[in-house]
Amino acid sequence: MKILILKDVGGVGQHGTVKEVKDGYALNFLIPRGLAVQATPEKVAAHAKQAEENAKKADAANKDMVEKLHNLNGRRVVVRAPANKQGHLFKGINKKAVADELSNLGAAILPDTITGLEDAIKEVGEYVIHVVDAGVDAAITIAVEAAN
């Protein structure tokens, strides 16, 4: 029986491939568990069309991210946090806080894409970080100011 694999199955194939397997294996294991469907021309065509649409959406999202990173490159972003008189922050600013601040500017940045900030920022000052995503490296200056 020809099947269209919906999820990666070890020893059988990867998502989106059409394979020939024994009828019992397909009917009793793969199809009931939602790992595959019987490969009809309509289902194969629908799956190919869906994969093409997903690729177009991913490409558009990638172009959008590249544009946003180019806009952020070289910018100075001010982050305010409570600090004492000596400039020590009461709470460190980590990658997640920086990513949230950049998201407020319109760029949905994941904390994992931020480099140059291995430890949390614990003092008032200016720090240069890099956001590497979609093949673009954007250097951003984070200015930490006391919010007292």
Polypeptide structure, described:
With 148 residues, the protein is an alpha+beta fold. It folds into two domains: 2-60, 3-Layer(aba) Sandwich (Ribosomal Protein L9, domain 1), CATH 3.40.5; 69-146, Roll (Ribosomal Protein L9, domain 2). The protein contains three helices and nine strands, in the order E-E-H-E-H-E-E-H-E-E-E-E. It has helices at residues 23-30, 41-72, 95-104; strands at 2-5, 18-20, 36-38, 76-81, 88-93, 114-115, 121-123, 125-133, 136-146. The strands form three sheets. The protein has a four-stranded mixed β-sheet. The longest helix is centred in the middle third of the chain and has 32 residues, at 41-72. The radius of gyration is 24 Å and the shape is elongated. The mean pLDDT is 92.
Write the SSE topology:
Layout (H helix, E strand, L loop, with lengths): L1 E4 L12 E3 L2 H8 L5 E3 L2 H32 L3 E6 L6 E6 L1 H10 L9 E2 L5 E3 L1 E9 L2 E11 L2
Parallel strand pairs: 4-9
Antiparallel strand pairs: 1-2, 1-3, 5-7, 6-8, 8-9
Let me know the largest β-sheet: 4 strands, mixed
CATH topology of the largest domain: Ribosomal Protein L9, domain 2
The CATH superfamily name of the largest domain is Ribosomal protein L9, C-terminal domain
Tell how many strands the DSSP assignment holds. Answer: 9
Percentage of residues assigned to helices: 25-40%
Please report the distance between the alpha carbons of the first and last residues: 70 Å
**CATH architecture classification of the largest domain:** Roll
> Count the helices. How many?
3
Number of domains: 2
CATH class annotation of the largest domain: Alpha Beta
